[in-house]
Amino acid sequence: MNAAPALHLSGRATIGGAPIFGPLSLTARAGKWTCLLGPSGVGKSTLLRLLGGLGDEVVFEGKVAADDGAPLDGRVAMMAQGDLLMPWLDAISNVTLGARLRGQPPQHDRARAVLERVGLAGHLAKRPHALSGGQRQRVALARTLVEDRPVVLLDEPFSALDARSRALMQDLAAELLAGRTVLHVTHDAAEAARLGHDVLLMTRRGITSIPPPQAPAPRRFDAPETLAFQARLLRLLMEAE
Amino acid sequence: MTATLRIVGVAALGLLVWQAVVTLAALPRFILPGPSLVFSTLWSSRALIAEHAAVTAIEVLVGLGLGAVLGFLSAILLAASPVARSFLRPMLVFSQAVPVFALAPILTLWLGYGLWSKVAMALLIIYFPVTSAFFDALMRTPQGWLELARVKNATPGRLLWRIRVPAALPGFGSGLRLAAVYAPIGAIIGEWVGASRGLGYLMLLANGRAKIDLMFAALIVLAVLTLLLHAAVDALCRRLWDA
């Protein structure tokens, strides 16, 4: 993996003349996990999509850049709320899909190793319908990891999971994505309190940074300072109209 | 199982009503024969009917096969190229505005009395439903998959072949199921306009000679063949894409 760059985005976005967000400014530190927390409809996902080079429907006036000056295209991996697995491909083919979409030889050994790291060694040849929701999201995580891209954009990837699977996935993702620049959009204060090296609160007025507890992420979900921080984030969310 | 029972029940009831109407109204057999006469004719003329049914079956299968291939390729061409879309799509709709029935005589003139004018007729009838069902499915690839492919820097051709086509195959299956029901209609129209063999020809001949029992017998065989074809196509599509 190449060195992970910091991400900067500043500007305002509209869709068909209707304001989506901004003007605002966001920084995700290099190699750190940044949680972007905010109420629904505030434009978090749009912002993430712009960083991922998507969002053709969005008119964006401003700047999106990595601090090393190189373009982001080809250095970004994305993970969404849905697992977006192809139902006609087995787990390992889903993981190697990216290579085949680019016309490169699929690296089966590497895909197998990554699937083993997410705990799916016995499920390589299973299709998505034969896997549980948590397992499917782990295949999606493996697919995100296999290309070893330095920037990872997460759009509520764990929100559809039950509480236990979600906590396990958070630990796994925090371990496996360490060292990459992660921007994690979430509306879950508990998740932000556990995972963020930086926690950004996005409201209609803009983005403010809320310093998280000192404990290293992923923090214990039952530690008093995690819970206190979670309560504080929730209070700020409630006050944000 | 209950569905099968229900179908059998409805069919039995229909036959009963049919026989009752014929018996009670004392209809002559050249106006409407009862089901018992139709089935005895079906049995006594089984060799004749089978011979003609085989001809029609081949026409339908060849038409269905060619129509499926042509529809598949056309839909991919339309989905892959905006230029092809802007030129061909109006033509595709226009081709449906022309009643295919009206084309049957000219097809017979061009392609002769044999197999190919019927195949062409079947093909003309099924081409639009197959193409349009598959094309619609190709244009409705879930947004998330398209964006995933884009973030992974997919080339347009590989995106089409590896995601859009496999994702659209169930739509192609819907088109094929429709085509299985429409293709026999095409073949029969072709046979009515000009043929010396086939179930359509046999029905026209029987009608002309007031052998209404034979006409009904041929009609029943045609309906059963169509249902079997639909069931076979349905089973194939399920096995391939829905599992």
Automatic annotation (TrEMBL), chain A:
Transmembrane segments: none annotated. It comes from the Bacteria. It holds the Pfam family ABC_tran. PROSITE patterns: ABC_TRANSPORTER_1, ABC_TRANSPORTER_2. SUPFAM superfamilies: P-loop containing nucleoside triphosphate hydrolases (SSF52540). GO terms for molecular function: ATP binding; ATP hydrolysis activity. It comes from Citreimonas salinaria. Residues 4-229 form the ABC transporter domain. Belongs to the ABC transporter superfamily. This is Putative hydroxymethylpyrimidine transport system ATP-binding protein. InterPro entries: AAA+_ATPase, ABC_transporter-like_ATP-bd, ABC_transporter-like_CS, ABC_transporter_ATP-bind, P-loop_NTPase. Keywords: ATP-binding, Nucleotide-binding, Transport.
TrEMBL record, chain B:
The keyword Signal does not apply. The chain crosses the membrane at residues 49-80, 92-113, 119-138, 182-202, 214-233. InterPro entries: MetI-like, MetI-like_sf. Keywords: Cell membrane, Membrane, Transmembrane, Transmembrane helix, Transport. Belongs to the binding-protein-dependent transport system permease family. One of its GO terms (cellular component) is plasma membrane. One of its GO terms (biological process) is transmembrane transport. The keyword Transmembrane applies. It is a multi-pass membrane protein. PANTHER family: ABC TRANSPORTER PERMEASE PROTEIN HI_0355-RELATED, ALKANE SULFONATE ABC TRANSPORTER-RELATED, MEMBRANE SUBUNIT. It holds the Pfam family BPD_transp_1. Its main location: membrane. It comes from the Bacteria. It is found in: Cell membrane. Residues 53-233 form the ABC transmembrane type-1 domain. This is Putative hydroxymethylpyrimidine transport system permease protein.
